[in-house]
Specification:
309 residues, alpha/beta, Arc Repressor Mutant, subunit A, D-Maltodextrin-Binding Protein, domain 2, 3 domains, eight-stranded mixed β-sheet, two-stranded antiparallel sheet, 10 helices, 23% strand
Length: 309
């Protein structure tokens, strides 16, 4: 077997779909099918169960994938390590986050400081970030929820208060604080299940014995404030968004509940090689996001002005 066969197998195993794997690999579908068939013949066991046009990784394939992931990851780490040692490569970086708006300012600073580094970004849910780290598809995740795994390391970048944003003129506009019971009939603008914003909303309501009314849901947490400003509902918005954005005017109200915060953490694999580019990114992330103000003490009512950055 050769490295190309293993990478083809890895892609097919990840997608459990020949056509999607071929698209990712940018090769013809018959080439992928023939490669998998040759690999199975060489190993003497089927790696996939086939039902019509559908394929599923079987127990042989699952066991083989664990070894293949480990072997290819070691080879990729070795390539990066040697390139760093030889000084022959500016490096590359892959980062996943729930919302890319979190990364915009930091990445601008990173590109200005290290213009030769190739950067790839992924917008991912919490579950997908776990999978990407496990498969070593990314160097880092910037996570708003805990990522599980004994092989992971993390550093807290910032802990910030999450506020309730309501449209200007809303009945709650101008209030200093409000409890969850007062929001029982309100329609919320939120994200789909799996994102931090929805997880926090569901937790706060569950603790009050209630279920939130979802009037609008999507996959981009950064769009919440704009949709609230347009009058589509109320919603949870982190403090960093209030400080950074005035393009979508809303009124800010504190929630009278304990632990209404978002924690941004930088997460990476403990057993993976961090290239010079990755180490530089980690240092800059701590430097930039670690300076974001945490819980603030000024009341965020209607008359609150946005502080200068």
């Amino acid at each position: 077997m050769d490295l190309l066969s293993l990478r083809y197998f890895q892609a097919v195993a990840r997608h459990e779909h020949i056509s999607r794997a071929a698209e990712e690999l940018r090769v013809a579908q018959p080439s992928v099918s023939r490669t998998i068939a040759r690999l199975e013949a060489e190993l003497g066991v089927p790696l996939f169960d086939r039902q019509g046009r559908r394929i599923r990784l079987n127990r042989y394939g699952t066991a083989f994938l664990r070894r293949v992931d480990r072997a290819l990851a070691e080879l990729d780490d070795a390539r990066r390590e040697l390139a760093d040692a030889a000084g022959s490569d500016h490096g590359s970086l892959a980062v996943a986050a729930e919302t890319l708006l979190t990364l915009s300012g930091m990445l601008a600073a990173f590109r200005a400081r290290y213009p030769g580094v190739t950067v790839r970004l992924f917008q991912s849910s919490n579950d997908r970030m776990n999978r990407q780290l496990q498969a070593r598809e990314v160097d880092f995740c910037i996570a708003s929820q805990p990522l599980n795994g004994s092989a992971l390391c993390s550093v807290e970048l910032v802990r910030e208060e999450v506020l309730l944003a309501v449209p200007l003129g809303h009945r709650l506009a101008g209030r200093d604080r409000v409890d969850i019971a007062a929001l029982a009939e309100e329609a919320f603008v939120s994200t789909r299940p799996g994102h931090w914003q929805r997880a926090l909303l569901d937790r706060l309501f569950a603790e009050a014995g209630l279920t939130p009314v979802i009037g609008c849901e999507g996959d981009e947490p950064g769009a919440t404030q704009n949709l609230i400003s347009a009058g589509l509902g109320i919603g949870l918005v982190p403090e960093i968004s209030r400080l950074a954005s005035s393009h979508a005017p809303v009124s800010w109200v504190r929630l009278d509940v304990p632990d209404c915060h978002r924690v941004l953490s930088l997460v990476w694999r403990r057993d993976g090689y961090l290239s010079t580019a990755a180490r530089n990114f980690r240092e800059l992330a701590v430097e930039r996001l670690g300076c974001v103000p945490a819980v603030r003490s000024d009341p965020p009512g209607t008359g609150l002005s946005t502080p200068e950055a």
